[in-house]
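[job 4471] stage=fold_predict status=RUNNING
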Amino acid sequence: MPPDVYQLTIEAPGRNALGTALMTRLLEQIRGAAGRPLLVSGAGDTFSAGLDLKEVAALERAGMERFLGLLDDLVDALYGHPAPTVACVNGHAIAGGCILALCCDLRVARDDPAVRIGLNEVPLGLEFPPKLLKLVRRRVPARWVERVILDGALHDPRAAVQLGLVDEVADDAPAVARSRLDRLATHPRAAYVAAKQALRDGALDLSEADRRHLREHIVPAWCAPEVKERVRAALKR
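[job 4471] inference complete, writing structure tokens
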């Protein structure tokens, strides 16, 4: 791997579940990459199985607001990273894991029919925070976005390509993802960053109404007893 490339590895218990500690570490690493190209992958045979549902089930309102705010910050940092970013989806990329993959400029998934990719928030009873919804609507083709969100199904990599959740599949996903990143990294960096910023400028910005909706509706909804019960039930599967 060229020395200019920064390897960002999603690694935590629970199939790389996105809890406060992991999200904080990833955010610090993205900022610390100092504009180097990012190759994003998961530790082991999973990209990320999503948010840490154990933590989600335990949070009260103030903690939930901080948790979702941290997730928003991570999405902003990865989506707006001032250099090429490629996700090597080396295994399951579910819910929050799929969100992180969607933040990247390109996504290469392992060609394995057992791998599952998708956004299953709605079946879990979790309403989409505004920033995440903006990201999905931006990245998933308009013809598929309602199916992806409302159906909430998990798809094999080839179906995920058709739905726009990933860009391609490969037998050797790490090698292909690295080659795609290397190619993007050959472009003059200033021109690449300028074009990326122009294309995405304001795309995920939240209005005051969005922020109020998050604070006054989404956060309480995620803390509702019936939602927490559904989350706890999912943990037992």
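[job 4471] summary: The mean pLDDT is 96.
[job 4471] exit 0
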